[in-house]
Amino acid sequence: MGQRFGTAPGAEDFAALAQAAFARIPAPFAEHLEGITVHIEEFADTETLRAVGLEEPFELTGLYHGRPMDEESIWTSGEFRPRITLYRQPLLAEWCETGVALEDLVTHVVVHEVGHHFGLSDADMHALEDAAR
Fold this sequence. Notes:
It is built from five helices and three strands. By secondary structure, the protein is mainly alpha-helical. Helix 1 (11-23) crosses helix 4.
């Protein structure tokens, strides 16, 4: 009972981890990431969860908001810039449950959401991850 825990990493820490993950994305992909912003929220709201077919807020660690590059055109002006939202509490829970380094978890989610920017589906990304193992 004598063990003490430090303060959980805050939104600023998550933003720094996300920026570090972006910095490690290699060319030619990195050249197409300009303008993507990263936002940190505690949890996804009910509307967002419903939109992605989830009920439990701890199930969603990140989300890409925007039009994939392969669907962009000059006729889509007026839309918000693409952004990635990281959900801090679900990531903290996964970190505690799995023991995987927080930096690795955040990098995994950032790379996954960047994949959506390039038009990859979840199935495409899982296949790529499986092939890389």
